[in-house]
Amino acid sequence: MDAVVGSVRAAARGESVLDPSVAAKLLHEMRRRRDRDPVDQLSPREVDVLTALARGRANKEIDQDLSIGEETVKTHVSNILSKLHLANRTQAAIYGLQQRLVPLDDALE
């Protein structure tokens, strides 16, 4: 009972109360996710859309190229921005170029 009261008081002070084994697992998972390539978080179709963005393609062009609806393209772009913590499609295009999803010469055509 003392442990519960102590935990409640610590939480009230804004402190975190984690069992050491739980804390170790949490830190391990956070490090694993940090070290993973962010592009690995994307689905294959999201990588296709990111590649098209890096080529400077508009949503309408991407939907035609990939035979998907424009709303689906918008959804993929939104997912890409969220997963990669990017603000807009321009940042996504630059990120795609930095990741060498397309050669720079292809992006300039």
Tell me what the structure shows:
- With 109 residues, the protein is mostly helical.
- The chain folds into 2 domains: 2-35, no CATH class; 38-107, Arc Repressor Mutant, subunit A (Orthogonal Bundle), CATH 1.10.10.10.
- Helices cover 69% and strands 0% of the residues.
- The chain is built from 7 helices and no strands.
- The chain has helices at residues 2-12, 20-35, 44-54, 59-66, 70-84, 89-98, 104-107.
- Helix 3 crosses helix 5 (70-84), helix 3 (44-54) packs across helix 6 and helix 4 crosses helix 5 (70-84).
- The longest helix is centred in the N-terminal third of the chain and has 16 residues, at 20-35.
- The radius of gyration is 21 Å and the shape is elongated.
| Fraction of residues in β-strands | under 5%
**CATH architectural type of the largest domain:** Orthogonal Bundle
Number of helices: 7
Helix content: 55-70%
CATH level 1 name of the largest domain: Mainly Alpha
Instruction: Find the CATH superfamily of the largest domain.
Output: Winged helix-like DNA-binding domain superfamily/Winged helix DNA-binding domain
Largest sheet: none
Structural shape: elongated
Examine the coordinates and then state which fold CATH places here, giving the name of the CATH topology of the largest domain: Arc Repressor Mutant, subunit A
**Domains (count):** 2
| Arithmetic mean of pLDDT | 86
What attributes does this structure have?
mainly alpha; single chain; 109 residues; elongated; Arc Repressor Mutant, subunit A
Note the topology.
Layout: H1 2-12, H2 20-35, H3 44-54, H4 59-66, H5 70-84, H6 89-98, H7 104-107
Helix pairs in contact: 3-5, 3-6, 4-5
